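Because showing beats explaining, we think one record worth quoting, sequence and backbone structure tokens together, and here it is:
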Amino acid sequence: MSQTGGNTVRAHHPDYGIAVIVAILLSVGLVLMYSISPILSYKVSATTPSDYYFMNQLKYVAVGVGVWIFATAVPYSTWRKWAPKLLVVSIIGLVALLIPHLSSNENGATRWLALGPLSVQPAEILKVALLLYLAAWFERHRDDIKSLRKGVVPFMVMLGLAAFVVVVLQKDLGTAMVLVVAALGMYFAAGLRWRHLIGLMGLLIGGTVVAIAAFPHRMQRIMTYLHLQCGNLVALATSPDYHSCQALIATGSGGLLGLGLGHSIQVYGYLPEAANDSIFAIIAEEFGLLGTLAIIFMFGLLVWRGIQIARTAPDMFGRLIAVGISLWMLAQAGINIGAMLAIVPLTGIPLPFISYGGTSLVISLLGMGILLNISKYTVREASDANSRQRRGDSRAYLANPGNMRRVKVAR
């Protein structure tokens, strides 16, 4: 049971549809790691086990699923008191990136904090911490949300500081963009005025321009995106267009049905970050257009289910968390896929649940666990669960925005 607006709300079945979608995406990621692991492992060293990438990903999935199950079992209202502590931990982690012996730099970005045998990305923790904190903050200040001085300005300061820390300390513009999209969407769902929304978007666009102009490697990526040329394959090897062009070559070579599982050519050292940020291009090469459309459909369905949970959440806190997590997945998947298709400039950001990596995968599954817990208290599901239980039918039901009824509370 969960405390909601002073009432004790009975829990019911979670939205198993979301669990199925996430399980499918995790399975796709593991299958891909199994197929490309021998090639990528040999690139590490000739003595590296051929299943190096696959076994590591399997460990990450095991840990992530444990976190997912834990978060699904914990009442989402518990995160009200834990959000500030989690936010402090993430900020300390980001500041620790300034310590040379604790941080590691790769491709011009300082994103990893070395803690013994573990490597952690503090910005990934910041994603979920900031969304939980903002949801609680919006709920406490619901009367000030429409106020410029008491609502918009404090929000802008909090979001601006978070984005600044990620962009400057971690040099990760992609993660900052995900945070901005999710946080701004939460504020809009909480009741932000349209004129304030337009003003905030203008300020954020200006801040993004400054963040790009201040770092030469970001300017180079923008110029590469605007003047992408993949025709001269001889000059391409030393060109800044190389990564984007190889991603497009991989995507185009897959055709309608793909080259088949384990038949990727780009993974043989042509496509950078094949297991991480570029995994969508490998999906396109091996599974073709139909495979990529299936992945895009799964993410779209995941976000749609999350929004339905938000619409039927029993309180403002749960509704805003569901909106934030849904937009987080939408923005991160959209930026990753868009970069591989040259729709947006190239940026280093993983594809949720599929890309190789530990912190991003575990934190994404934590978010899904929290979302699933919220779905256990949605209004429509509670009514249906009680009604079906009286008729002896224990089947699970998905959240549905239609025909909402009052949630039954414990007496």
User: Anything to note?
Assistant: The mean pLDDT is 85.
